[in-house]
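Before relying on records like the one below, remember that each one covers exactly one chain. Contacts with other chains, cofactors or solvent are not represented anywhere in the record.
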Amino acid sequence: MQRMKHQLKTCAGRAQYGLRKKTVEPVFGIIKTLMRFRQILLRGLGAVRGEWSWVTLAWNIRRMAVLRG
């Protein structure tokens, strides 16, 4: 916690932390809102990985369809 506070006080640390908004974070928000995927339904690491793979596959197909027009 202390290390993170110190990192956010520096310009380089704030810039690095700010990259989260540009990279992956919006995708999780879109998956949660547009695809209504709020929780993993299965148990076990293998099952969770499989379910998440299906969700990301659906997201990628949807994104390709939008980009293709």
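The helical segments are 2-9, 11-18, 25-33, 45-68.
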